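re: ur question from earlier - yeah i can do the single chain one, its not a big deal. heres the input i used so u can compare w yours
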Amino acid sequence: MRLRIRAVAMAMVVATFGTLAISAAPSSASVSQGYVAGSGTWTDDWGDEGPISASTRSHNNVVAMWQMILWADGYLARSGVDCRFGPVTTAATKKWQSARGLVSDGVVGPKTLARAATRLGVWEGEGWYYYDGAGERFFHLGRRTDGRWDMSLVPGGEWQLLSYTYANFSACS
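and the output i got, formated as tokens:
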């Protein structure tokens, strides 16, 4: 009987801690959702995104967003924004990561995107943001009411969702 009481007590402790661990975990996005997305505060939306690289999801609108970050920070020419994660984007990514003390592997995953997100600012109210790059370079992004992020490559230009599955900016070939 005593052994059974101990087993039940141990099971209750394990269940309680397991429930606490699950409920304390932050909600996370998933590439399988198909878009850069978030909920709640916008400041932590990018820390669970990616990866994108030359070998993983290498042609899409999220790559265009990353290339705009590289452009804004002075690591990529504006003409290099083509939604394709090729050798030039890989080299620029490695330099960007190295300059920020990250592992310079050329893969844009949660740590790289979380570091980039520290340069986001609010633009004219809730739902509108900008990436504040080096010097006077910046670009605009938005977060829709459903949590999906979008952006424009140029002021007054087309706005597209930041999709992992397609590249539909006019600059994407």
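Residues 1-29 have pLDDT under 50 and may be disordered. not sure if urs matches, ping me
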